[in-house]
Write a structure and sequence with these properties.
By secondary structure, this protein is α+β, with helices and mostly antiparallel strands. The chain folds into two domains: 56 residues; 91 residues, PH-domain like, CATH 2.30.29. It has four helices and seven strands; from the N terminus they run E-H-H-E-E-E-E-E-E-H-H.
Length: 166
Amino acid sequence: MITNHGYSLVNLRADYFRAFVGFNFCFAPYVLGAKAAGGVLILLGCAALFALYGLRTLCRQFARIELDEQKITMKIFKYRAIPWEKLTDLSLSYFTTWRSGGNGWMQLRLKGAGHTFRFESNLSDFEQVVLNSVRAAMQNKLELSSATLRNIDALNIRIPESGQPA
């Protein structure tokens, strides 16, 4: 069975907003006639970073991810696939913007077959992608870090002693 996943525009709105505001705030002094020296050059560099962030968000919006029993496939400009039997590394990280640990997001990183895929938790059916990836990691007998195991547990994906996620 093939499942399709992607990032919705609703989930990417805040990223587009940050890129737009950051770029305009940093680029405004140059447009308003400030000489390109010192602090203005630093702001122009920051404007370039915000522009790259906006392009990255645009790429995520058009990314299409497919899962099936044999592989995970991602298409942005071209198809790239990681067959499950060639999965060599899996990590699930949690990032937070608050000291209390709330209001954060997760990122799944998969490596194999010469590719590295990164998926953030605002991907549609993120938990299903993690579940299928963890199953492949268990079949390939990959050693997962303690942080990854804690984050898998936080998603209520259980890994019993048999090594197969439930």
